[in-house]
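Tokens in:
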């Protein structure tokens, strides 16, 4: 079965968008978690635990979002 060239081109563009979003998620997730942890530290103290845990939770959230994105993309094919 042949695929329409416009459909194939659209799929390629979607794939490029998905796979360029992954590094952004890996950078922004931990950075945002760390930043929120720093705000908690400034307000209530307990240095360095809130920022460390925020970075870890941000990384875990980013990995989860990437997993959902990749598995959803796999189902669409």
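Residues out:
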């Amino acid at each position: 079965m042949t695929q329409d060239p416009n459909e194939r081109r659209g799929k390629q563009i979607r794939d490029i968008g998905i796979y360029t979003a992954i590094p952004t998620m890996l950078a922004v997730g931990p950075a945002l978690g760390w930043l929120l942890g720093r705000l908690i530290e400034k307000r209530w103290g307990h240095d360095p635990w809130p920022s460390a845990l925020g970075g870890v939770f941000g990384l875990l959230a980013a990995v989860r979002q990437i997993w959902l994105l990749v598995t959803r993309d796999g189902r669409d094919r």
